[in-house]
Amino acid sequence: xxxxxxxxxxxxxxxxxxxxxxxxxxxxxxxxxxxxxxxxxxxxxxxxxxxxxxxxxxxxxxxxxxxxxxxxxxxxxxxxxxxxxxxxxxxxxxxxxxxxxxxxxxxxxxxxxxxxxxxxxxxxxxxxxxxxxxxxxxxxxxxxxxxxxxxxxxxxxxxxxxxxxxxxxxxxxxxxxxxxxxxxxxx
Length: 187
Prior knowledge:
Strand content: under 5%
Helix content: over 70%
Number of strands: 0
């Protein structure tokens, strides 16, 4: 039973894996649409959990700095998408962020603060851009943004909680599972 959490996580990943995993149609409007969006695709929720896991793994001020930085970049990315709705290679960039974050966790890479912040900002910008592009036409942008920021915070806290409560090997195993998922999304 000591491998039960890993099996449960991997089972959830396999359950969510499909060729349409990157599609996010059929949202409601406003706050509820924004709240649902990060949970609607494995690409988003894995990246957001991974930011929390990586922050927990590094500890110290990075525990709050990386998730907060990701969320600020998320908002900037959404604003960018609303103003300039054409960014090439967005989906491969998002899948690559899942792969990279998974590898950072799996390999227990403790990068300098500035580099860690730059990485999370770049990935937050990409995910925010996707959130902004996929905002329903009738949605109120501010309410939608509050919804996806709230959902992102929940996912970050979930990753932090898993990272703080688990042993290093479990976090590394989760990192490998996330990295494999990112590689699958790229394929």
